[in-house]
Each structure stands twice: as C-alpha cells, then as structure tokens.
Amino acid sequence: MDKIQYKKEAYNTLLTVLASAISALGLYVFVYPSAFAPSGVDGIATMLQELTGWNAGYFTLLINLPLLIAAWFLLKKKYVIYTLAFTLLSSVMLVVMERVEFYQYQGSYERLIAAIISGILLGARTGIMLKLGASSGGIDVVACMVQKKLPYKNIENIISVICYAIMAVSYFVYKDLNCILLAVIQMMIFEKTTGKFLKDNRNAMEFKIVTKNPLQIKEAIIYNLKHGATVVESKGMFTEDGSVIVFTVVNNRQIPDFLNLLKQYPDTFVYYVEVAGVQGNFRWGKYDIAK
Predict the structure, then answer these.
(1) This prediction's pTM
(2) Which CATH number does the domain housing residue 238 bear?
C-alpha cells in the first residue's frame, strides 16, 4: 500500500469511527429515552431492547452479522469491512454508554425535538458511510445484495414498505400512536440529511440555452463567468429555423449575473435546473486558453 492509499484508508477509518459515535449518540441520547423505534434494523433492535431489557447494541450486532457474512460473497470486500467496523464500533459504544450511564435526553414533552435531532444524526452517519462506499448496515446491506443480483429491479419501494412496516409494528411494543408519528418524522429528516451528505458540496445549476447568438453568449460564459460550455446544433419544431443549444454549469451565486447577461438577447430561450452533483472541474483553469 503506497503512502497516498495509506492516508486515504486512515482517513476513511477515522470517518467510520466518527459515524459510529454519531450513530450511538443519536440512538442512546435521543431515541431510546423518547420511546419510539426508528426504521430499519435500528428500529428492530430498539423494540427488542424495550421488550427484553437487553442493550440494543447486542441485537444490532446479532442481526447484522449474518447479513454481512452473506454480503462477503456478493459485495465488494471494502464495503463489507467498513460496514462491519461501523457495526462493531457503534454496538460497543451503545453498550459502554449504558454501563457508564451516559446522559440521555429526558424531554418527555419534547419528543418531537428528539425525533428531529436523531433524524439529523442518523442521517449524517448514514451519509458518511455511503460516501465511503460502505453503509450503516441492516436494510442497506439487504438492498445492495438484492441490487447486485437483480440490477434492473427497482427495490426502493420495497425497502420503504419494509421500513414503514417496522415502524407500524412498534405500536404493539409501545402501545402509543405517537411513536409511529415520531418515527415517520424522523425518517423524513433522516432521508433529507442523508441526501445532503451524498450531494456534491459544490452548489451548481445547469443552464440549457436555445439561441441564435452563440458567439455572444460564449463571451459571457467564458470571460464573465469563467466556465466552459457545450454547443449542439438544433432546429425548432414549430418554425424549423436553425439554432444552437448551449449547455453549461455555473455556480449558484452566478445565477443572477448570468440571467442579466442573457436578457441582452431577447430571442434567447433558457431554462435551468439544480444539479445534484458535479464531478470534475466545471470552471476553466487559470492557464486554459479559449479558442
């Protein structure tokens, strides 16, 4: 292993430890004392803890180990190793927190706050692990294995049904309808937070510009915004007049300036959408020369 790869693995290991700590904090400090079960394996372990009095960390480990053994033969070894490390660390942390009687949020009238904060924390830990090319275990592992065997099968709906079914079952454990509502709120925040972590941290917009003045717009994009673009010839369906479509990606902060520049060309049609992520450099370099 070369020095760069060693540093990368060390960094990934630190992130796995961080994700494990965030997970344990979210569950032990906010979820357990607020008497509701989150979705997935966390929810199953939480309900088993409520029924038996045993720490949920044991159940999380017992449920995930068979899944990860199966995943070893189907998925990438790196995925399984980091997911296993996360599962072990987070489970041990949950047990230790119970032994040392770590602080728990006792907001009996503020359970909504517990659902919101735990949703943020658990979403963050899952986002971190997914960006590492691993997961936080449980249903994520099942989903990856199914997707591996059935790559054209859309399993998102199936996973959602399983998650909501787990939350519905929690009613029979806590005998409280509020536990389901709290779990739904937590899951929504969880998904939003996870999405934020998976999204590229560079906020950008994709512009598609239909114009007959590509040279003037080229000046605006290259010299004013310092970006590149792609030009495709096109023909209007209604008039059949020739034109071009300019594709470019710009920073969010540049949107007002770009729109003001485009207003100089009244026969230009433009629409833009938010970009989920950007890989590579979409600005031209300091020493690049426009032709």
Answers:
(1) 0.78
(2) 3.30.70.120
HSE value, Cβ hemisphere, 13 Å, CA-based, for 137: 33
Do residues 55 and 169 share a domain?
yes
Quick check: 50 and 179 in contact, CB under 8 A?
no
Interatomic CA distance for residues 280 and 148, integer angstroms? 27
**Per residue in 157-209, pLDDT tens?**
777 888 889 999 999 999 989 999 999 999 999 989 988 887 765 667 888 98
Same domain, 233 and 194: no
Range of the domain at 232: 204-274
Distance of alpha carbon 213 from alpha carbon 215, whole angstroms = 6
Q: Give the DSSP H or E segment for 182.
A: helix 177-198
User: Per-residue pLDDT tens for 215-263?
Assistant: 888 877 887 777 788 888 888 777 778 888 888 888 777 788 888 888 8
Using DSSP's 3-state secondary structure scheme, residue 207 falls into: strand
- Assigned token pair, 23: 């997970």
- Torsion angle (degrees, nearest 10) of CA 118, 200, 75, 87: -30
Same domain, 57 and 185: yes
Same-domain status, 72 and 143? yes
Residue 280 lies in a domain: no
Q: For residue 233, is it within any domain?
A: yes
Q: Are residues 132 and 191 in the same domain?
A: yes
